[in-house]
Amino acid sequence: MLNLSELMPDVLYAFSYRNVEPGTYVYHDHTFLELSIMLEGYSDYNVEGRWRRVDTGQALLFNPGVHHQETQPPASQSLQLHVGFRHVALPGQTPDHLPFADSLVNLGSLRPEFMACAQRVVTESQRPAELGHAVLLQALVVELLCLLLRALPENPVSSDYLALQSETPDKEHVALVSAATYYLEAHYGEDLTLSDLATSLHVSPAYLSRTFKGVQGESPINYLTKLRMRRAKDLLLKDQLAVGEVARAVGYQDPYYFSKLFKRYFGIAPSLIDKGDT
C-alpha cells in the first residue's frame, strides 16, 4: 500500500473555466502535474495523439511531459476545473509522477465523493483573500489526490508501480532507511553529505542511496532537501528571523543558494513569505 504521509503538494493554480465557444487549443505539455475535471457538459481531448470524449464527472490526470490539447465541439459547452501542482513524491515512484498508465482516470464508486470535493475546490479557488486560503486549498487538493489514488485498483497502472508492488523491502532495508531518516531529522541543521550519513550508519554511500530510494522512493539527499525546506518555511512563518539566519538553521551557509533552492521548491522567495499566513 502506498504511504501518503508526506503528501504535501505545492498547488500552482486551481481555477474553473466555462467554455462556450467551439475551437481547439494548443497541443502542449507541462513540467508539473495537472488535473482537469469535467464539472458540466463535455469536451474532446487529444492525449498523445489519441482523441477521447470527456463527459461530466470524468477526470484527466496529466503527468509531466504528457502532451494534450482540448477541442470544444460546435453546439456544446463545458465547465472544467483545472488544478496544477508539483512536489509529489510517492514511495518507489518518479518524483512528480502518479502511477496511472492512462490519463483518463476511472473513478468508479468514488466519483460522487471526488466530484463533491472538486466543487469545494472551485468554491475555495474563488476566495483567495480569505484567511487560510492557501492552507485550505492545499488540503482540498490532497483530498482529491487521495481519492484519485484510492481509485488506482480500477485503473491500468504504470510499469514502475507494478515493479514496486512485486518488490517488498525486507526488514533489514526498512530498518536501515528508518535509521537514516531518524539521523536526518536530528541533524538536518548540520553540513551533511551522503558520505557523512553512510559513515554514521556503517554502510557504503552507494548501498545506502540504492536502499533508501528503494524503500522511500527518493534519494537521501532529496529527502534531506525536502526536510530542510519544510523546516525553513516553518521558521519563516513562525519566527522573526532573517533569511540568512533561517538558512544557517537548516544547514545552508550560503543565503543566496538557500533562497534559490527555496524559490525552486515553493515558487516564492523566502523574503516574501507572509508571516501571517499560517
UniProtKB/TrEMBL annotation:
Family matches, as SUPFAM superfamilies: Homeodomain-like, Regulatory protein AraC
- List, for all copies, the residue spans of the domain called HTH araC/xylS-type: 178-276
Q: Which PROSITE patterns match?
A: HTH_ARAC_FAMILY_1, HTH_ARAC_FAMILY_2
Domain of life, per the record?
A: Bacteria
Where would one find coiled-coil regions in this protein?
none
- What would be one Pfam family of this protein? HTH_18
Kindly give the InterPro entries that the UniProt entry links to this protein.
AraC-bd, AraC_XylS_family_regulators, Homeodomain-like_sf, HTH-like, HTH_AraC, HTH_AraC-typ_CS, RmlC-like_jellyroll, Tscrpt_reg_AraC-type_HTH
Q: Which UniProt keywords apply?
A: Activator, DNA-binding, Transcription, Transcription regulation
- Keyword presence, Ribosomal protein: no
Q: Name one GO molecular function term.
A: DNA-binding transcription factor activity
Protein name per its UniProtKB record: HTH araC/xylS-type domain-containing protein
